[in-house]
Amino acid sequence: MNLKASTLTEAIIAMVIIAIISGLALMTFISISSSNNSQLKILALYEIENIITQSHIEQIWDDEEFEIENILITRIVENYSNQRNLKSVSYKAITKQGKFLLERKELILIKKIQNSKIIDNNESHFD
Length: 127
Hints:
By secondary structure, this protein is an alpha+beta fold. It has one domain. It is 40% helix and 39% strand. The chain has one helix at residues 8-58; strands at residues 64-68, 71-80, 83-95, 100-112, 118-126. Strands 1-2-3-4-5 form a five-stranded antiparallel β-sheet.
């Protein structure tokens, strides 16, 4: 009776095929994992934009924390360059687990005019 054995070449080819399939599976897993993080970043950016818009409408420039779904957004307001009418406003979004998502900063120029109205000219940028 004559038994056929697999050759070294066949074993190497099988190992290469298994390595390729494992690599593809790992890439798919990483892609799926990071897409959830991207969705959280988009949601955080949308919510920060809503908070900024509301702050400009209501002229609220105090430190505050906002909790929206799985995201914690912190607004920190500081005087910029020791000037009372120029404020640096920083918005930071993190997950409830403490993972940093994004940060947005803007400078707010506040001028007081007659009848206690406040005019707001601002410049903003992303970090």
